[in-house]
Amino acid sequence: MKFFITGGAGFIGSHFVDYLLKKKHKVIVYDNLILGSKKNLSKNFQNKNFKFIKGDILNFQKLKSSMKNVNVVIHLAANSDIIKSSNNPIIEIKNGTMGTSNVLEAMRFNNIKEIIFTSSNVVYGEVEKLPIKENYGPLFPISFYGASKLACEALISAYCHNYKFKSWIFRFANVVGPRTTHGIIFDFFRKVKKNKNKLLVLGDGNQSKPYIHVDDIVRAAYFIYCNKKKEINFFNLGTDGFTSVKKIAKEFLKFMNLDDTKIIYKGGKRGWPGDVSKVRLDNNKIKKTGYKFYISKSDKSFLLGMKQAIKHLKGLV
Length: 317
Ligand SMILES: NC(=O)c1ccc[n+]([C@@H]2O[C@H](COP(=O)([O-])OP(=O)(O)OC[C@H]3O[C@@H](n4cnc5c(N)ncnc54)[C@H](O)[C@@H]3O)[C@@H](O)[C@H]2O)c1
Fold this sequence. Notes:
The chain is an alpha/beta fold. It has nine helices and 13 strands. The protein has two domains: 2-175 and 211-237, 3-Layer(aba) Sandwich (Rossmann fold), CATH 3.40.50.720; 176-209 and 241-276 and 296-313, Alpha-Beta Complex (UDP-galactose 4-epimerase, domain 1), CATH 3.90.25. Helix 3 (89-109) links the parallel strand 4 and strand 5. The longest helix is centred in the first third of the chain and has 21 residues, at 89-109. Residues 6-7, 9-13, 31-36, 56-58, 76-78, 80, 95, 99, 118, 120, 172, 174-175, 181-183 line the site of nicotinamide-adenine-dinucleotide.
């Protein structure tokens, strides 16, 4: 099989690359490197099954001509930093929704019919009855990032219906592990590197969400892709339980040996305007497929992923 991975030089994408090459598939990465890096792929450049193309999904002509003879597209390229677009919705409209539209059109032009899409739990918006099942509705996201992801899901659905595409849509929890390019660990690391006397935390620290290890993301998505062949296959992909921001701050400072750093909480119950402060995902649908989680609990996934992420950020791995 030949996989085309948009955003394959980023955090999650580069793990997909490693996994698929190990499975002896052919992989083309298409990435503009705004957040990702060739370093994340360095061990693969010698592999004859691997090809890297520096390109933007907003450059339709290049995207279209790069996608030749591909079987499946894994579409990850997006603005992955949800906070960045809270003051600039256009980032999501362009990079998220328009970008996905380009990916789907390029697929149509090249007669490629299968897409794996990396959506997010934030499409659900703020839900009272937790945990959230996949059939929850109506969906009213509260961030521009979530709104764009939902629009992308809707576009994919229409392509499936009109052009006989098949899709695998995953609504991820928060993902942790080595090579992270954004998110809470990345943010904390950057802050204490600048000033180790204080750690500024967005929100009151009571925000609590499930965390999933990047290895589970990649393995589960591949497992579901191989075993579920409906027109639209959609799943929550998270862990059981949750980890609070207070706990993350404490564990982070402990692992960094920063016992004297003062934690300062800034803001109210949300970390930023589009932040869903309490998330719980129902993972029964994915469990019923027979997928066996590498780590099924949020706290455990988080701790391992955090330690690996910090070692990577320090350049130790
Ligand atoms: N990390 C998480 O917790 C999480 C949770 C839910 C969903 N997701 C989704 O998973 C996907 C991957 O996220 P990630 O955490 O690996 O982020 P990332 O930023 O590390 O990876 C995204 C990659 O896409 C590339 N990219 C961005 N815009 C592009 C464009 N216009 N053209 C070509 N390449 C472009 C970046 O350079 C980067 O390498 C994203 O779609 C993100 O929204 C991530």
